[in-house]
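Researcher: Next sequence.
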Amino acid sequence: RAKVPMEMPTEMPVEQPAIDLELPVDPNEPTYCFCNQVSYGEMVACDNPDCKIEWFHFGCVGLKEQPRGKWYCLSCSAFQKKRKGR
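Model: Next structure:
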């Protein structure tokens, strides 16, 4: 039985050390969104004046651009549907 030579990659991947690019977060800076993170990037406000969170990161709510007209977060839109169903 002939042995099949193992092919070794010509270049081994070199692991780069992880660099933490995040700036220190001010503990007094307010947090927003379902992710409970500080404000960054583009954000959208829920149009429910009683929304407990109010501001959301586009990426967290699946938006790529500012919505036209009123926009409600998942929690508030579910609550609105329940109220209308009564």
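Model: The chain has two helices and two strands. The two ends are 78 Å apart (CA to CA).
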